[in-house]
Amino acid sequence: MAKLPKDLLGLRELNAEQIQLILDTATACKDIFSRDLKKVPTLRGKTVVTLFFEPSTRTRTSFEIAGKWMSADLVNLTVSSSSVAKGESFVDTARTLEAMGVDLIIIRHSLGGTPRLLADSVAAHVINAGDGAHEHPTQGLLDLYSIREKKGRIAGLNVVIVGDILHSRVAKSNIYGLTKLGAKVTVVAPPTLIPKGIGEFGVTIETDLDKALRDADVVNILRIQLERQTKAYFPTLREYSKLFGVNLSRLRQARPDLLVMHPGPANLGVEISEEVSVHDQSVITEQVTNGVAVRMALLYLLTGGGNKDEILH
Amino acid sequence: MKYCIKGGEIVNPAGEYSGVGDLLLDAGQVVAVGQELPVEDAVIIQAEGKMVLPGLIDMHCHLREPGREDEETIASGTRAAVKGGFTAVACMANTNPVADGAVVIEYVLSKARQNGWAKVYPIGAITKGLKGEELAEMGEMAEAGAVAFSDDGKTLTNPAVLRSALEYAALFDRPLLLHEEEPKLADAGVMHEGYWSTVLGLPGIPALAEDVMIARDLLIAEYTGGKVHFCHLSTAKGVGMLAEAKRRGLNVSGEATPHHFTLTDQALENYDTAFRVSPPLRSEEHREALRRGLQDGTIQVIATDHAPHSLEEKHREFALAPTGMIGLETAFSVAWTELVLGGWLTKEQLVEKLSVNPARLLNLPAGRLQPGDLADLIIVDPEWEWVVKPEEIASKSKNSPFIGRKLKARVETVWVNGILKYDGQKFVE
Ligand SMILES: [Zn+2]
Ligand SMILES: [Zn+2]
């Protein structure tokens, strides 16, 4: 039977069997949602810390709900950039958490590799909740879960990822997960936002969105960081939206069962039009729900859970 | 004290005698090199199966004194040098204060006289404060003992300043040692831009950033006729452009470091900051090009770019850790293991790159074993296999990318000016 490593740092480190285990466990967790009393005692007595160096209400709340429903003791630590400026080093923070005997740490950081540094410094389990442009494995897993839920499978699907591939941790976690489970992935972006060597990840590179969408089963639309414009990756948001935005006319030319995804929060009218975001082919809202199920599964599996039937009791 | 080193293999490409033989030294000088030399009253050192080489010369290291004596001092840095077989080192000007005037050059030299284990040749800054704006007082520094000029650590971005510097430095016949990285192209990059920077999600520095500066500076070197030496070459195109410039007869040279010709960016897979260096470790094709450049003679020098950093500073987020690694104690063994045993260089070529050529480029009285020369020489055991361990490092800093690595060949005995400094496994106080 598949077993997870001590930490979840990225999907690059996992094999297909481990990913399937997480998705299957998430299915069991999602059953809890339909109950009146959404609480199980699985993680009673365990201390879970969320350590966010970068604000993200969405991801943090999702982890918090997952932890609460599993009866964990939760501590939120927001590390402001000012305390970093004061000279408290990242490694000091890790040592402090280690001394507190925390069981699991969920970390979000703007620099790639910090979850690894933390994981190497503490005995606690570490979950990467997004680090720089490296990985966002829990988002990748919830995207996989949502696709599998709607399409019934991953293998053999054509998945298009469109947007800022260069800076996107979501894109990479998606690519690892999807290709390991047998999907065919195409990345679409202006050439300035396609990182070097991405072809070696086993994906097809395309700059024509219409062409890429023709055979797509799924389109995952990445958020454009508005502040990146100053770096001259593309001339204007208007032009970006014209060339790479998913709108209703593009949706109509694609397959009728094209699944539309977005990790949120979306810039409506830029990378995705409002009509598309609320279209019945869009699963953006379900992605949020599935995020809780996937994170419950991870908390459970990493802290030593073996049999998924236990979750329900 | 008189010594006779007997029966070693003398690798001496710049001297008159090479081959198995004896070497006699007395009163700080080499007295004779050849076969079956008379022993008389000399202390005999058996060197059968060993190699006898001219002392190694590192034309690019950072000794951190003055300013960061917690990381390295002239005393600790030259101890590390001697342990690695370097009998002379040229140290860069990016100290605090910057070595941009005769006072700091004299300070370094006086510290070296007091407690240096190897000879120290200071390099003066090209511009005041390494700011890249106004020329530093090169004439006074040359007079005080600066052997070259460099703003290493920083790139001279202003081409007009480089032009003036090259024209002016010609007065003193000193080369300019250039650190080449176009800062706008490097931007916030922390590693080589390529497959691995994408995997790791770290901002990349394209090889292009180094290449455009080399291209620009070769044009400026050609126009001014100045002497340009490229520090730590790391790109395939850079090596190609250097080869082409040499064919056209330009007065240019270049160096490669052991870490660049041995390691690739894959070493960063676990975000280990020991491998963060400037310029960054690059991909396989670039490493291969450096080896070819060393092999065909395009790159004449192997230099360490020994850059000590404290563990506290290195033990942090990858993107925030300082760049640089130490290298004096491992350079010879790494070069031997990778280049000689790897079939890229002969022993003679290795000695040229680690001793003969740096001496020539910096105009130093060293790099060969010849009667009448000062006795800077080392004995190397080519069969000695060892593993790099932090507790055995003589440098104050332990930021070596080769810790844990198994190496072949080790420097056994070191004389500086005919004085035994390192013997077997210990320093001779
Ligand atoms: Zn440099
Ligand atoms: Zn340097």
UniProtKB/TrEMBL annotation, chain A:
<dbReference type="InterPro" id="IPR036901">
    <property type="entry name" value="Asp/Orn_carbamoylTrfase_sf"/>
</dbReference>
<dbReference type="InterPro" id="IPR006130">
    <property type="entry name" value="Asp/Orn_carbamoylTrfase"/>
</dbReference>
<comment type="similarity">
    <text>Belongs to the aspartate/ornithine carbamoyltransferase superfamily. ATCase family.</text>
</comment>
<dbReference type="Pfam" id="PF02729">
    <property type="entry name" value="OTCace_N"/>
</dbReference>
<comment type="pathway">
    <text>Pyrimidine metabolism; UMP biosynthesis via de novo pathway; (S)-dihydroorotate from bicarbonate: step 2/3.</text>
</comment>
<feature type="binding site">
    <location>
        <position position="223"/>
    </location>
    <ligand>
        <name>L-aspartate</name>
    </ligand>
</feature>
<feature type="binding site">
    <location>
        <position position="108"/>
    </location>
    <ligand>
        <name>carbamoyl phosphate</name>
    </ligand>
</feature>
<feature type="binding site">
    <location>
        <position position="86"/>
    </location>
    <ligand>
        <name>L-aspartate</name>
    </ligand>
</feature>
<feature type="binding site">
    <location>
        <position position="169"/>
    </location>
    <ligand>
        <name>L-aspartate</name>
    </ligand>
</feature>
<feature type="domain" description="Aspartate/ornithine carbamoyltransferase carbamoyl-P binding">
    <location>
        <begin position="6"/>
        <end position="149"/>
    </location>
</feature>
<feature type="domain" description="Aspartate/ornithine carbamoyltransferase Asp/Orn-binding">
    <location>
        <begin position="156"/>
        <end position="302"/>
    </location>
</feature>
<dbReference type="GO" id="GO:0005829">
    <property type="term" value="C:cytosol"/>
</dbReference>
<dbReference type="Pfam" id="PF00185">
    <property type="entry name" value="OTCace"/>
</dbReference>
<dbReference type="GO" id="GO:0006520">
    <property type="term" value="P:amino acid metabolic process"/>
</dbReference>
<dbReference type="InterPro" id="IPR006132">
    <property type="entry name" value="Asp/Orn_carbamoyltranf_P-bd"/>
</dbReference>
<keyword id="KW-0808">Transferase</keyword>
<dbReference type="InterPro" id="IPR006131">
    <property type="entry name" value="Asp_carbamoyltransf_Asp/Orn-bd"/>
</dbReference>
<keyword id="KW-0665">Pyrimidine biosynthesis</keyword>
<protein>
    <recommendedName>
        <fullName>Aspartate carbamoyltransferase</fullName>
        <ecNumber>2.1.3.2</ecNumber>
    </recommendedName>
</protein>
<dbReference type="GO" id="GO:0044205">
    <property type="term" value="P:'de novo' UMP biosynthetic process"/>
</dbReference>
<feature type="binding site">
    <location>
        <position position="139"/>
    </location>
    <ligand>
        <name>carbamoyl phosphate</name>
    </ligand>
</feature>
<comment type="subunit">
    <text>Heterododecamer (2C3:3R2) of six catalytic PyrB chains organized as two trimers (C3), and six regulatory PyrI chains organized as three dimers (R2).</text>
</comment>
Automatic annotation (TrEMBL), chain B:
<feature type="binding site">
    <location>
        <position position="309"/>
    </location>
    <ligand>
        <name>substrate</name>
    </ligand>
</feature>
<comment type="pathway">
    <text>Pyrimidine metabolism; UMP biosynthesis via de novo pathway; (S)-dihydroorotate from bicarbonate: step 3/3.</text>
</comment>
<dbReference type="InterPro" id="IPR004722">
    <property type="entry name" value="DHOase"/>
</dbReference>
<keyword id="KW-0378">Hydrolase</keyword>
<dbReference type="InterPro" id="IPR032466">
    <property type="entry name" value="Metal_Hydrolase"/>
</dbReference>
<feature type="binding site">
    <location>
        <position position="152"/>
    </location>
    <ligand>
        <name>Zn(2+) 1</name>
    </ligand>
</feature>
<feature type="domain" description="Dihydroorotase catalytic">
    <location>
        <begin position="49"/>
        <end position="235"/>
    </location>
</feature>
<dbReference type="GO" id="GO:0004038">
    <property type="term" value="F:allantoinase activity"/>
</dbReference>
<dbReference type="GO" id="GO:0044205">
    <property type="term" value="P:'de novo' UMP biosynthetic process"/>
</dbReference>
<feature type="binding site">
    <location>
        <position position="60"/>
    </location>
    <ligand>
        <name>Zn(2+) 1</name>
    </ligand>
</feature>
<dbReference type="GO" id="GO:0005737">
    <property type="term" value="C:cytoplasm"/>
</dbReference>
<dbReference type="InterPro" id="IPR002195">
    <property type="entry name" value="Dihydroorotase_CS"/>
</dbReference>
<feature type="binding site">
    <location>
        <position position="94"/>
    </location>
    <ligand>
        <name>substrate</name>
    </ligand>
</feature>
<feature type="active site">
    <location>
        <position position="305"/>
    </location>
</feature>
<keyword id="KW-0665">Pyrimidine biosynthesis</keyword>
<dbReference type="InterPro" id="IPR050138">
    <property type="entry name" value="DHOase/Allantoinase_Hydrolase"/>
</dbReference>
<dbReference type="Pfam" id="PF12890">
    <property type="entry name" value="DHOase"/>
</dbReference>
<feature type="binding site">
    <location>
        <position position="152"/>
    </location>
    <ligand>
        <name>Zn(2+) 2</name>
    </ligand>
</feature>
<dbReference type="InterPro" id="IPR024403">
    <property type="entry name" value="DHOase_cat"/>
</dbReference>
<protein>
    <recommendedName>
        <fullName>Dihydroorotase</fullName>
        <ecNumber>3.5.2.3</ecNumber>
    </recommendedName>
</protein>
<dbReference type="GO" id="GO:0008270">
    <property type="term" value="F:zinc ion binding"/>
</dbReference>
<keyword id="KW-0479">Metal-binding</keyword>
